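Quarterly update, task 2.4: glutathione-bound model.
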Amino acid sequence: MGATTYPFTEGGYTLYSNANCPYAQRALRAFNAANVPYTVEEIDLANKPSWYPLVNPRGKVPALRTPDGTILIESLVIAEYVADQFPESGLLPSDPVARAQLRLFIEKFGSEFTPDYYRALTAADTSDQDKFKDSLAAAIKGISAELEIQWKRESGRGGPFWAGSKWTYAEVILASFVGLLPVLNHYRGFVVPETREFAAFNRWRQAILEHPEFLRAKPDEDALIKTYKKFVPDA
Ligand SMILES: N[C@@H](CCC(=O)N[C@@H](CS)C(=O)NCC(=O)O)C(=O)O
């Protein structure tokens, strides 16, 4: 018989997570940035507990159980819920135009950086790997240009984060993927060039890597490299 119940913290937030999952880190970082307490149920993705389908029938992390028993899934949905539920955290800008520009940036990152990152990592053929690494570099150039534009706007004046000097929603959502670059360097020798066109990205990345909110949910680099090995056909 299947499980009929699952573990959660009565009256609190329970996050079903995995330390090496970049999507789960979004949820952790949203709670951390909003300064809202939660407990973590660490899910072993290679050997999921029999009760996990009761929490998320899709079987993925992150998932969230709220104090009233509502279950939310999907990292962007969970992070936006936290920002909306705790507006005093200032995670999302209140100005609709600033919100729209932030959403566009996250969309651009998700549709350009993330797919090329995974394609470069998982391609078996070296000429495909090179093609996707070039494409990723072009995506990063575009992200860099977008950051330069944002840092001239009132909502991002001066950087080095999307919202200026403050770590907010853009970093909550994207820091884990920026933090995955060492994995691609390890398996594919990919480095972000130090030239002018990449300068804003490199400044943003450095500020992310040094921020306490990044370090608080940062996976161990060796563990990350090991986790990603299964996606690398020639490793
Ligand atoms: N679109 C999902 C993606 C989550 C996801 O892919 N999680 C992976 C780990 S990083 C997972 O749970 N994989 C387990 C599985 O698919 O069985 C989100 O944003 O939350």
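Highlight for this quarter: The chain has a mean pLDDT of 97.
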